[in-house]
Structure to design on (482 residues):
């Protein structure tokens, strides 16, 4: 719940629509208040003018009745100004020159009574007072005769009932209008938010796609202005990212190939030697046959066949290793790969006075692996071990399995790795050898990691080094490289 509110507060869409709605509402309310105030002012001053005008006209007609004290005439004059419910005059009082009321009349539809007042007022001029309680304008005008001055006063009550009703009407209309405006304001806000947000959401999705590994993912060009520029820039960035990653991959592939060629070069002498042995035995056999001028016995043929098969296998392994990498995970026997690589390096070991101990556990499970890659790992590690034992030594290769993993161990009695370089041996191009590439362990590390495995090196200076390659029996799908 708390998280939802936090999201709500941080959502751009909600912020935009709420702010728009707020601005629209505030503006509308301000404008409506202004309109009502203006309208009231105009209506009030008009009503006062109208009332004063009416009072003055009636006062003129009152002159004669006042002069001749005709009360009945005064009465009917007042009555004629309030004949219906729609007349604005609600009461009328005629005063004599001393300010004593002479005639008083109240409209049938006006229930209240005006307060008694003594006249004349302060001056012989029009006075407009507002009686808030009765909601009337209380207007007094003098009745003036030429040469005589004020002969009396007329006091009229002008109701504000119609004015109030008109203002109420205006108010109601404004309320409806305001609601419509605020509602459409909110709608516009939401719509704008959607319009602004949509490209942002699309960009967001694009970023997630790239984050999820879909390099070069592009978003549609949407919106105008900055948003459009942003999506164009995003696509450009995504494209460049893919280009650089591709370039890095190509460079990496090239490095792997270089290191592989280097390793192959190191062992090609061994290969030739390996092939030479069976060839020599075939040759010797043929020579004997030739010298003694006898035919080949079936036993000879069997030997020759065996030797040819050996050559065939060696060449096949060598070619398999040299093939460009195709990262295909297949069922793989780790012992078999170790044996192949040991065979390939045997001649080199013999020349360097290195004794071989093989302790392969034949009960280890078959695992899912990428054999060419693993071949390269073993070859690099064995080559390092041989190179570390210049004055001879013992190379021990072993295999074991434990809890869903298979481990291959390559142990040498060589120079060991000094502490100060041990943290850098997996770095690309780190080498302590004159002719080294420094790529062997870096590549081995990558290959093992692609198998979700582990390569662990432990070493004691001048005593030797143990390199363990631990691989899981099965590989998770995301460990695969496309
Ligand atoms: N078995 C080992 N014994 C001693 N040092 C080793 C061993 N394996 C690796 N190293 C050290 O790690 C460095 C990096 O090895 P690697 O990446 O294979 O590159 P390179 O063999 O081309 O030097 C080597 O130069 C060496 O100093
Ligand atoms: Mg190496």
């Amino acid at each position: 719940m708390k998280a939802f509110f936090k999201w709500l507060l941080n959502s751009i869409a909600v912020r935009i629509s709420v702010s728009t709605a707020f601005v629209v509402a505030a503006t509308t309310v301000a404008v409506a208040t202004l309109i009502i105030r203006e309208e009231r002012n105009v209506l009030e001053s008009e009503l006062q003018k109208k009332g004063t005008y009416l009072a003055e006209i009636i006062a003129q007609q009152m002159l004669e009745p006042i002069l001749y004290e005709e009360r009945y005439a005064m009465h009917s004059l007042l009555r004629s100004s309030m004949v219906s419910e729609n007349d604005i005059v609600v009461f009328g009082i005629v005063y004599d020159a001393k300010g004593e009321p002479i005639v008083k009349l109240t409209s049938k539809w006006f229930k209240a009574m005006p307060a008694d007042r003594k006249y004349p007022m302060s001056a012989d001029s029009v006075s407009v007072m507002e009686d808030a309680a009765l909601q009337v304008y209380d207007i007094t005008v003098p009745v003036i005769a030429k040469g005589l001055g004020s002969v009396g006063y007329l006091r009229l009550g002008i109701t504000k009932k119609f004015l109030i009703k008109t203002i109420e009407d205006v108010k109601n209309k404004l309320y409806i209008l305001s609601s419509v405006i605020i509602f459409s304001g909110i709608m516009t806000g939401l719509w704008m938010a959607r319009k602004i947000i949509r490209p942002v959401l699309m960009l967001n999705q694009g970023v997630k796609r790239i984050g999820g590994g879909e390099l070069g993912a592009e978003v549609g060009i949407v919106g105008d202005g900055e948003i459009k520029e942003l999506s164009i820039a995003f696509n450009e960035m995504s494209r460049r990212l893919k280009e650089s990653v591709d370039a890095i991959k190509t460079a990496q592939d090239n490095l792997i190939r270089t290191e592989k060629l280097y390793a192959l070069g190191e062992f090609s002498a061994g290969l030739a030697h390996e092939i030479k042995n069976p060839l020599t035995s075939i040759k010797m056999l043929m020579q004997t046959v030739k010298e003694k001028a006898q035919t080949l016995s079936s036993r000879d043929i069997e030997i020759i066949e065996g030797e040819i098969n050996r050559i065939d296998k060696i060449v096949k392994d060598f070619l398999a290793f040299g093939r460009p990498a195709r990262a295909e995970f297949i069922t793989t026997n780790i012992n078999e790969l170790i044996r192949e690589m040991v065979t390939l390096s045997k001649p080199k070991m013999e020349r360097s006075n290195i004794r071989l101990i093989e302790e392969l556990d034949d009960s280890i499970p078959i695992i899912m692996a990428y054999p060419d890659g693993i071949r390269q790992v073993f070859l690099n590690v064995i080559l390092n071990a041989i190179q570390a034992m210049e004055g001879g030594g013992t190379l021990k290769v072993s295999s074991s399995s434990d809890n869903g993993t298979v481990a291959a161990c390559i142990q040498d009695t060589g120079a060991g790795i000094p502490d100060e370089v041990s943290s850098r041996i997996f770095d690309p191009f780190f080498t302590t050898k004159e002719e080294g590439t420094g790529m062997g362990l870096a590549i081995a590390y990558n290959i093992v990691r692609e198998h979700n495995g582990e390569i662990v090196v432990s070493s004691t200076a001048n005593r030797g080094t143990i390199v363990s390659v631990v691989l899981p029996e099965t590989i998770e799908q995301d460990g695969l490289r496309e």
User: Anything to note?
Assistant: The chain has two domains: 2-168, 248-479. The first strand starts at residue 89 and ends at 96. The chain is about 55% helix and 20% strand.
